[in-house]
Sequence to fold (301 residues):
Amino acid sequence: MNTFWSKNIFGIDSLKTIRDFRFNTRFSELYLQVLPIQRGMKLLDLGCGPGSFTRCIYDWFQGDLHVEGLDLDNGYIDFCTEIAARDHYNITYTVGDACKTIFSNESFDITTSYTVAQHVENSSFLKEQYRILKNGGYIVIMDVGGYNENIVSQLEVIPISREEFNILVALKIVDEQNNIIKAERHNKHKNSDHMTMSLLNDMGFTDILHQKIKIFGSPDNPQSDDFSRLIINNFYSHYIDLAISILNTDNSDDIKHIANLYIDLVNERKAKRIKMYENNKKLWDSIETDVNIIIAKKGAI
Ligand SMILES: C[S@@+](CC[C@H](N)C(=O)[O-])C[C@H]1O[C@@H](n2cnc3c(N)ncnc32)[C@H](O)[C@@H]1O
Fold:
């Protein structure tokens, strides 16, 4: 039973919240202009996490797509399976290693992954996809090309207290200069785009393309209430999640006390932001994310 990621790195709820923003239906046109996906295709999402991409892509094609998800982490896969049963998604999820899957040769028309390549040994990850793709099938490697969380306006109105900052430092979530420490530890296999494209070429992939799309959101844009609240949740869930993951690894009384205090302080700031939103006070805090997309084809032999 492997729950390393869902317990220590990204909690299920916060990863789902962040990804439900990034793959929101309002951005579907942007994705679909670039992704080589057509109705009826057989798609596997590797390292699917809590499954946001699998459900979104299934919705964007009104279910006329055979979608499967695979992840090493049982916590995410159990969650995906439950949601699929509850919300009637005809999607199959499997626990497994993306570098050595159980699938037969030439099983899929398209393999996708979002922010996974930097966590796994790249040549086995890409080779495995070459093996399980049909001739003429596509590999799609997605990543965050640039992430800008513009919370300056928000922090002017709802500043982080000294108490909150001291806890962040004590928990080793940030250093004294406010650089995030914890999340950076796991990008062990990060390659440049050029390196990834060159690896794909060496493996025999053809038609290698590099594309970027940009997604943007501010709670103060005129838009649906749900989407505004989703963006606000985005701002706070990452930090709360880091504290939860620390609690999962160290449950000593001292850590429990300060981590819980920290979560309360973040929730207080979040409640203030929601109140401002409800009172129509505009802060124009925003999130902008580049989605970096590399696509290549397994040429027919
Ligand atoms: C940053 S998360 C991204 C999850 C998901 N793609 C998303 O965007 O919500 C990285 C994911 O890769 C998974 N992962 C890491 N190593 C893996 C491996 N060798 N095989 C399958 N999944 C793996 C983790 O469990 C985690 O779900």
User: Anything to note?
Assistant: Residues 4-298 form a domain with the Rossmann fold fold (CATH 3.40.50.150). The two ends are 39 Å apart (CA to CA).
